[in-house]
Amino acid sequence: MKQTDSRTVGRSDGARQRARVLAAALILACQSLSPTVRLSAQLSPHDSALHVLNRLAYGPRPGEADRVAADGVMRWIDRQLSPGKIDDGPLAARERRFKILDYDSGELARIYLDAQRERRAQKRAAAADSMTQKPEPGGPLEQRGRRLAGQFQELAVTRAVLSERQLYEVMVDFWANHFNVFFGKGADRFLTPAYIEQTIRPRALGKFADLLVATAQSPAMLFYLDNWESVAPGSTPPQAMRLRARPLFGPRPMFGRPPLFDPGRDPMRADSLRRQALARMPKGINENYARELLELHTLGVDGGYTQQDVIDVARIFTGWSVRRPQQGGDFEFHDWAHDYGEKVVLGVTFPAGNGMDEGVRLLKLLANHPATMHHVSRELCQRFVNDDPPDGCVDDAVAAWKRSDGDIREVLHAIFRSPDFWAPANVRAKIKTPLEFVVSAARAVGADPDTTPRLAQVVARLGEPLYLHVAPDGYPEREDAWVNSGALLDRMNAAVALAAGRLPGVTVSLDSIVPAAQDAERLIAQANAAVLGGTMSEHTKAVIRRQLSDASDPAQARALAVGLAIGGPEFQRQ
Amino acid sequence: MTISRRVFVKAGGLALVSVGFDPLFLARAAYALHRPTVRPSDRPTLVCLFQRGAVDGLNMIVPHGDPLYYRERPRIAVPESDVVDLDGHFGLHPRLAALKPLWENKSLAAIHAIGSPDSTRSHFDAQDYMESGTPGLKATPDGWLNRYCQHDREHKDTPFRAVAFGPQLPRILAGSAPSLAIDDLQAFGLRAPQPAARDRLTRAFEELYAGSATGLLSTSSQEAFEAVQMLKQVSPGQYQPANGADYPRGRFGKAMMQIAQLIKADLGLQLAFADVTGWDTHVNQGSSEGQLAARLADFGQALAAFAQDLGERLREVVVLTMSEFGRTVRENGNSGTDHGHATAMLVLGGPVNGGRMLGRWPGLDPADRFEGRDVAVTTDFRDLFAEILARHLGAKDLAAIFPGFSPDPARFPGAINI
After folding, report:
1. Is the domain of A197 the same as that of A258?
2. In a 3-state reduction of DSSP, which class is residue B349?
């Protein structure tokens, strides 16, 4: 039985089928019998608990693996799949300290534009007084904007550290990368918070189709992938009519619109400004969103679409825009910009004469297309099971997708019940991303971050500045993207700083977890329990023991033991 | 005691041994004496720069002699009066003017209509193909620069042989041959208040990884510790560019400066790699001024500063720029350009057969375009890459570096002086 289970992964169908039946039997046994029944022949309840806490959560907090094991691992998973039923009061209280959540996109836009005006004024002042020119740190308004942006990144880290709804936070991060936007691009500087809070978070465990439609209509995505300016060739925006109709020069009238340009200005310049404004108006389609929608969000790059499909998808989404993006406005369909001609996508005809509804129709078609099911299921298995996801696990996920019409909870449920998820070969087979590394370390030492972006800055230094991946593919999931010489040294530095309590803005309460002591064996045992869930190798113990032999004071000894455990190779795995 | 699978002390580096107190290090040093040695200054260096996001080759190297260029790009074409002419037909974008002197002294060449035989317009697939060196084949596990290292093992003796400047090791250097990723040379290594504490911490982590790490964690950490040990001699914080070179501020300028620094430090750098981003100009890319112009200015100034800084040492260096594909000939609805096919690349350095446009220009006539819309590929990027590996680095087994492709000197674009 032991052998069957470990050898079946990705082998013959018969064997896999057998393993699946076996796992199902075990799961049933776990649910109906005592919670200490083994999930698989190889994993003890404690190991199973560690495994789910490493994958479905951001690592165990002190003592958590024991609690989950005693309580029943499958029961814990089921609870995590219904986050609404988990009390998260302490986190909710903490979230209220994050002022960024009090602002809507419009208010953030104003803050951003104020900061921009301030910067321009400063530049002008500096240019006028070139003698005193030196690099400005940014005025108070700009600093406020930057503080809010940093707070938003820290909020993600804080939720990951403190939330009881761990799987939910993991899925929010998953979708934030799957439907990546770039916090640093123009209006996305103030549209991204609402994107995460109102588009992604409410739908992270719902139907994939709902999430897809919501992202397609989100100002952040429409701006990021340029669709808001994609228009049918030959269409005339109302602004252009106004621009043409509006008096160019002259005194301000009592009624009606003021002239476009200040009469005091050079008329030649004013005229060229007007021509520039007209020239900048959208004149045709933009393929950016259409392509990434097919390639990344839904079908996958090998999903069988053509360049002509990309063009027709772009035509379908002409007019999907944003009302005044520079003021943080909402989604708006521009009738005047829509291409009402016939389109064909993946062999499906979208007849002429349809408006916004054909875009929704297309998204629903894409959401439950077989290529999409496979592509997204594969990504999920890559996240939860193995960088190279076993076919069996992906098949299970796809089957659940079909059964449930793309219900993400059901798909996850299937993955967590797949024998591949529990195969010993897949335990600790993945390397933590920088976010996972930092958050799991913070959880291990009971760290309590404040609203300053210190932990988010560590995540950034390790290569994963949150919401700041420029390209639409999001941060990678595979280990070769994260393991390299420089990154490992940075992780060691972060580990040492955290263990020594040298990260300002992060309160580490090691005293109750690993009390400072001179006794090397006790320190090693406690660091092993807290950081590695008791899985520390003999070699690691020996190295720490040697280092502790000439550590002078107890606090330093503890920092060294914990720092080495977190920065060492075993804690990089999950 | 663990002996490293790879050693790096050269004859010229023996002085290092006397200052290294680490027994591990001494063991490696002793091991190293059996290695062939090369004088570092005899070594050619190749610097590969990836313009991620697909640079608009037509506005970088402007075909100003082609009326179709102006007809297709009414809002974003670079006016003929602004173009820095190169050969009467092509010219540099005005914000690349800093490179003109290098063209004039024959150390800069440009090639147009270069790209992949694969037709994908996906950034990620196209980048992947350009880095794996196997267009159309996704299963290739390693990058072509790494395969070069695997097939030419003579330079194995330094951890600084292949270095990527950035937080991640790019696909092009992925593979079984060792390579470093250095985000910032000055911060590379463990930090501690005193040097003694730092050395102790370094040693502790080194032992930890030597015994408990497996797979990529093991090899990467080993390379890191070797590099840290060697870098102690360089004091990276002290660097002053030579000849008044003025690197632009920002990530890319800093990467170029640190590449120059490593070349001059004689640590055996043979392959350097850096990314430069911001080329995916779907909206308002601008013409002589604007978004693309600002990126090109940063790019050109960093390249010019690099050449200036290296001075005489540019004799041993070739810089190759690449980008996954070009952009549409015709501007799109938003004064930008969408994903296209062929693009332009630059080759810069002492060994370059410069002052010339390379490759064959297919023209912009719709009938001559790829799928009627994009600049057609007339040079497979592997022909240029293979030429540089063969003629600059002396690679012998090109077929092993570019599997499924038969590099033929008859097809080399002629970028390197023979």
Report:
1. no
2. strand
